[in-house]
Amino acid sequence: MAGSPCPIETMKRVVSQMHLSEITIAYGMTETSPVSFQSSTDDPLEKRTTTVGRIQPHLEVKIV
Fold it and tell me: What is the pTM of this model?
């Protein structure tokens, strides 16, 4: 799931009603790659909905 913040209740409904237990949160820009950051399927739902995840291995990130 990507594009905007996802409330935990929405994520729970997606998991239960669509049977997508491994859905994750992703963030990226077209200029850098479709996905730059992504949460893990091992992360609890609470963590998946409160972060954009970890940097993908093909990128380097600099916080300015």
Answer: 0.77
